[in-house]
Amino acid sequence: MKRVWKTPELDYYNLYADMLQQPHLLIAGATGSGKSVVINGMMTTALKDSPAAVQFILIDPKRVELVDYEELPHTLRYSSEPGEMVQALQEAIAITDNRYRDMARQHVKKYGGGAVYVVIDELADLMTTNKKQVQPILQRLCQIGRAANVHVVAATQCPLSAVIPTPIKVNFDSRVALRTRSGQDSRNILGVTGCELLPRYGQGYYMTPEGCRLYNIPMYETETPDIIEYWRKQKPRIVWNG
Predict the structure, then answer these.
(1) Whole-angstrom distance, CA of residue 29 vs CA of residue 26
(2) pLDDT band per the 50, 70, 90 thresholds, residue 181
(3) Do the beta carbons of residue 57 and residue 92 sit within 8 Å?
(4) 100-114, 126-140, 164-178, 215-229: which range is least confident on average?
(5) Which strands make up the sheet holding 174-177, listed edge to edge?
(6) What burial letters (b/e) apply to 36-53, b meaning 16+ CB within 10 Å?
(7) Which of 103, 191, 230, 238 sits in a 20 to 30 Å window from 50, CA-based?
(8) CA dist., res. 208 & res. 65, Å (int)
(9) What's the whole-model pTM score?
(10) Could you tell me where the DSSP H helices lie in 145-214?
(11) Using CA atoms, how far apart are residues 189 and 78, in angstroms rounded to an integer?
């Protein structure tokens, strides 16, 4: 893999904004490599828009990474228990199906309304707990969400085939690979080795259909708490049904 370093004129927000344009995004890396930093950076960037333009469905098996976003007006649903997480995916499917019905009535092929981001903090925990229920729902959501402006952002420290089966992985044509535990993990996420040689944190590969590039990634999300607190204070909470 050719390593291309981040150019000085490219800032982090442009990088995160570009990630938000992808139909679906898979983020993988070893524990402590910065997956949560990437997710928080993307969500902070998305929060520049109002709840009328951006909504979240949050799936947080570890119960600590996404909980700060639970009370925001942008959040349709926060789930951390096994049954609730399946229901959250089902709700995302219901929103997607409703949008396809609207598209059919309007004779359009792409939904023109706001975006819904289904953010899964640890895909391995979700799959090992409810794989039989989760896999077909997640697979369908990835397949049909693109045109409906429903996007899946999933992070995992364990990019194995048991966690990310091929029928699901093929729908993630955009991926972020941070430092991995092994060359095999790197191969599972990018198709080549090399991520195991990255620094423990601070750098990662961003792969899209256009190519793969190495970026510097900040270690801290300094603005995230302030932005979360701003939106938490907004009243009344806006409920958007998609």
Answers:
(1) 10
(2) very high
(3) yes
(4) 215-229
(5) 75-79, 54-59, 115-120, 150-156, 24-28, 174-177, 203-208, 211-216
(6) bbbbbbbbbbbbeeebee
(7) 103
(8) 25
(9) 0.89
(10) 166-169, 183-190
(11) 27
Phi-psi bin for 95: left (phi > 0), alpha (psi -120 to 50), beta? alpha
Nearest to 206 by CA among 17, 45, 51, 9: 17
State both tokens at 172: 């993630």
What are the residue ranges of helices labelled H in the chain? 12-20, 35-46, 82-106, 123-144, 166-169, 183-190, 224-232
What are the Cα distances from residue 110, in Å, to 24, 99, 128, 241? 16, 9, 33, 18
| CA–CA gap between residue 32 and residue 37 (Å, rounded) | 10
User: What is the C-alpha separation between 69 and 121, in angstroms, rounded?
Assistant: 12
Alpha-carbon gap, residue 41 to 62, rounded angstroms: 19
User: What are residue 152's DSSP bridge partners?
Assistant: 24, 118
Q: Are 199 and 189 in contact (CB under 8 A)?
A: no
Assign 25 to helix, strand or coil.
strand
Q: Is the pLDDT of residue 32 over 90?
A: no
Express each pLDDT in 40-65 by its tens digit. 999 999 999 999 999 999 999 988 88
Closest CA to 1 of 140, 218, 241, 175: 175
Backbone phi, psi, residue 196, to 5°: -70, -15
Rounded Cα distance between 28 and 217, Å, is 14
